[in-house]
Amino acid sequence: MSEKRPNFIVFLTDDQGYGDLSCMGATDFKTPSLDKLASEGIRFTDWYTNCPVCSPARAALLTGRYPGNTGIRGILTGHRKTKGLPESTPTLATILKSEGYSTSMVGKWHLGLEENSRPHSHGFENWFGFLAGNVDYYSHIYYYGANMQDKTVGLVNPTHDLWENNKEVWMDGEYFTEIIADKCIEYLRKMNKNDKPFFLYVPFNAPHYPMHAPKKYMDKFAHLPWDRQVMAAMISAVDDAVKDIMDEVDRLGHSENTLTFFTSDNGPSRESRNWLDNNLDPYYGGTAGKFKGHKVSLFEGGIREPGIMHWPGKIQSGVISSEPCASMDIAPTVLDAAGVDLSNHYLDGESLLELAKGKSDNKERTIFWEYLEQTAVRKGKWKLVLKGKLIDAYGPVPDVHLSNLEEDISESNNLADKEPEITEELKNLAENWRDKIEEKWKKDYGAPNEEQRLNNFQLKFR
Q1: What are 371's strand-pairing partners?
Q2: What residues contact residue 460 under an 8 Å CB cut-off, 6+ apart?
Q3: Which helix (H) or strand (E) segment is 142 a member of?
Q4: CA–CA distance, 75 with 360 (Å, rounded to integer)
Q5: Residue 388 bridge partners (DSSP)
Q6: In terms of DSSP bridges, do strands 42-48 and 319-321 run parallel, antiparallel, or are they unpaired?
Q7: b/e 123-148 (16+ beta carbons within 10 angstroms → b)
Q8: What is residue 120's three-state secondary structure?
Q9: Beta strand 258-264 pairing with 198-203
Q10: How much is the pLDDT for 273?
Q11: Longest distance between any two alpha carbons in the chain, whole Å
Q12: Are 338 and 99 in contact (CB under 8 A)?
């Protein structure tokens, strides 16, 4: 394998809260492998996902675009006729493959199940995993949505969902997080035989429901309440998998030539389906730390995520960065590091290479979000949320909410009335950006109505 160009690994977890790594503040369990990556690289305190739910967040990460500019703005259903990421939307894998890279994916896809939406149609030469939004960790069957009505297939039934290079495979009884580690090692060894650099995308499904973990991990955290015990167990298994994968990279001699990212797709789930005892209360096993919000919400708890960048000898080490960044920055950063001319590609994200080397120009950045009726914008220290959503436990949510994140990280105080000029400026920015998203969506993706835009699927909270 060539050492002339860098290799790339992107780790992504699922429904993991900002505070659920020990390097991000967790005190009731440890994540030594991910902590090591952070201590040897850059840990971002203000890292964001581009959407507070699965499919759009993944589309943004893999394309370097806002979700609305990818063709995916809602949570995709899990039946085998589900249309997903359009082939017209280039991914990081598509571009790197055209640049001579070996490309592999292991884990959760959730960007469509019909043939033209699957990983091999988006640049992955080798892929293993499941295509829907979640599966049982041991049987790899998609149960969620069972007996739900669907306009495309009529009735959604439980579906086995485990694949390798588009062929269905069966691995009953094997824990999926551990399968991911084993398969990544297999693919690394396979790619190592080529005289090419590699890109490995590792989207874990943990700690997304169903809440499953092997006994050895559950026993390790037996002192914790069940909701927190199973969360700690699932993330600990992910941490061990990351260690095994990075150890293999080192064994193959590629540690110093491999740029690695780690983040999560959205904040912690409060869905009652996380419980396994028919409890209908919101689930608090995952934590967003000091932030207000959760999965589905555009308040910080739903979109601010752990963010780690690691590249020994090439970027700063042991650095904590408070620069606002987003998952859509991963693609341009990787392409920049690979020597690809970014001007040849439509990207909303920005390369972080200069920032990672300590050469930030300190410019104030503006980042936008949209999901369902919610719209949000952050500009410097100011954050505006329009028509924000939270579970009932938070109480009433104002239609316009302005926060000063430097002074109020938990978005507890609404400053919209006290700062009318800033509120109006950010409101205009957000609405104008949203209008452009809607215009492009109707023009390029032919889905002007709400039902198509959301792919008939919304999360429900009590």
Answers
A1: 374
A2: 271
A3: strand 141-142
A4: 35
A5: none
A6: parallel
A7: bbbbbbbbbbbbbbbebbbbbbbeee
A8: helix
A9: unpaired
A10: 86
A11: 62
A12: yes
Find the angle CA(247)-CA(326)-CA(68) to the nearest 5 degrees: 120
Say whether pLDDT at 451 is over 70. Answer: no
φ/ψ (deg, to 5) at 41: -135, -135
AA letter at 305: E
DSSP string, 347-370: -SS---HHHHTT-------EEEEE
Average confidence (pLDDT) over 34-54? 98
Residue showing tokens 């919000």? 293
Which residue is associated with the tokens 């086995």?
A: 160
* SS3 (DSSP) at 258: strand
Alpha-carbon distance of 404 to 401, in angstroms, equals 10
Tokens 């259903």: give the residue.
77
Tell me how far apart the terminal alpha carbons of the chain are, to the nearest angstrom.
52
**Residue 329 vs residues 133, 147, 161, 231, 383: alpha-carbon distances, Å:** 23, 39, 30, 28, 19
Task: Collect all residues with Cβ–Cβ distance below 8 Å to 247 and sequence separation of at least 6.
Answer: none
Mean pLDDT of the chain: 93
Decide if 34 contacts 23 (C-beta within 8 A).
Answer: yes
Write the DSSP symbol of residue 282.
P
DSSP secondary structure of 166-182: TEE---TT--HHHHHHH
Average pLDDT over residues 205-217: 97
pLDDT of the residue at 427: 98
Residues making up the chain, counted from first to last: 462
The DSSP code for 375 is: E
Q: Which pairing describes strands 126-130 and 102-108: parallel, antiparallel, or unpaired?
A: parallel
pTM over 0.70? The answer is: yes
- Cβ neighbours of 381 (radius 10 Å): 13
Look at residue 253 and give its three-state secondary structure. Answer: coil
Name the CA dihedral angle for 210, 215, 219, 222, rounded to a multiple of 10 degrees: 30
What does the block give as tokens for 451? 């039902």
